[in-house]
């Protein structure tokens, strides 16, 4: 086993860094700062960060097949034109819950966008958005809709509702996008914090960022066994994705919001993004939204 190396690479000082996506065509890392209301794009080659301000909380940003990005801003899925920095609303969700906001979102291999909401007073939901912008609600009674990804054969959808302290799986019908047969894959253990963002590697195993746990855990969904723990120098690890030229780098985002003064002084790198090398596994390319 090669030695694992954790390096702070994107000094973004995010309030809530989240939703990393590797863009193969650009060889750049896309991620958001939810509370900072920004979408960031970082190039490892130039070490430059470009940003677009969203004017409201932004839960995720994903590439679109037609160009540009789709992002979850407030309760709206919006189109983002990076060059003009213009945002155009495509569709709204949770219209009956005005204080809710979109949180994590990801695109399935067929171009369908799945995204969830969360709220302070009311519970959130999990939706899918088709290429014609038809919205389907799959789950309600969600506390904090978070990490999501698919198995290698696309027949299983992995999902995290953070406050349940579990990573769950559903049967996934790739034709209809319907979910069924919910079951628990992994229960968080003492000290691991809240399950947050997640990615699936090329071997079908899960990598889950642990908020308030200062780590990313690697889980075999077939057995529910934790295979590995990667410790980071920040407690509020939020999400992760594989990237780099051969997808062997694991990028991990983090948050600084909510740290008190002594925690901030002990965690000077909070809110930055990290690159983990030497894991001996690779990830898979991201999918682009067809809408």
Automatic annotation (TrEMBL):
EC numbers on record: 3.1.1.17
A Pfam cross-reference name: SGL
Chief place where the protein resides: cytoplasm
Catalytic residues identified in the record: 196 (proton donor/acceptor)
Domain of life where this protein originates: Eukaryota
Residues where substrate binds: 101, 103, 121
InterPro entries documented for this protein: 6-blade_b-propeller_TolB-like, Regucalcin, SGL, SMP-30
Catalytic activity line of the entry: D-glucono-1,5-lactone + H2O = D-gluconate + H(+)
UniProt domain SMP-30/Gluconolactonase/LRE-like region: residue ranges: 16-256
Cofactor requirements of the protein: Mg(2+); Mn(2+); Zn(2+); Ca(2+)
Positions bound to a divalent metal cation: 18, 146, 196
Cofactor: binding details: Binds 1 divalent metal cation per subunit.
Ranges that cross the membrane: none
A GO term, aspect molecular function: gluconolactonase activity
Keywords: Calcium, Cytoplasm, Hydrolase, Metal-binding, Zinc
Compartment(s) of residence: Cytoplasm
Entry protein name: Regucalcin
């Amino acid at each position: 086993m090669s030695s694992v190396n954790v390096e702070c690479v994107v000094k973004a000082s995010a309030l809530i860094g989240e939703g990393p996506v590797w863009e193969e065509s650009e060889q750049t890392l896309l991620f958001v700062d939810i509370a900072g209301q920004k979408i960031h794009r970082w190039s490892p080659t130039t070490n430059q960060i470009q940003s677009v301000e969203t004017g409201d909380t932004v839960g995720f940003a994903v590439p679109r097949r037609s160009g540009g990005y789709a992002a979850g801003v407030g309760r709206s899925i919006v189109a983002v034109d990076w060059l003009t920095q213009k945002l155009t609303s495509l569709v709204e969700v949770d219209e009956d819950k005005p204080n809710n906001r979109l949180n994590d979102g990801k695109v399935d291999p067929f171009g369908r966008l799945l995204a969830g909401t969360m709220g302070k007073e009311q519970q959130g939901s999990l939706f899918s958005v088709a290429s014609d912008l038809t919205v389907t609600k799959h789950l309600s009674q969600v506390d904090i809709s978070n990490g999501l990804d698919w198995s290698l054969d696309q027949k299983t959808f992995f999902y995290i509702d953070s406050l349940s302290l579990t990573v769950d799986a559903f049967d996934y019908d790739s034709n209809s996008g319907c979910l069924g047969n919910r079951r628990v894959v992994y229960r968080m253990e003492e000290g691991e914090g809240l399950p947050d963002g997640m990615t699936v590697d090329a071997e079908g195993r899960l990598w889950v960022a642990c908020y308030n746990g200062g780590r990313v855990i690697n889980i075999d969904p077939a057995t529910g066994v934790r295979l590995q723990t990667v410790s980071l120098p920040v407690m509020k690890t939020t999400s992760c994705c594989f990237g780099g030229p051969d997808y062997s780098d694991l990028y991990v985002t983090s948050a600084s919001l909510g740290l008190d003064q002594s925690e901030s002084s002990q965690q000077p790198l909070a809110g930055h993004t990290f690159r983990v090398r030497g894991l001996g596994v690779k990830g898979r390319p991201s999918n682009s939204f067809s809408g």
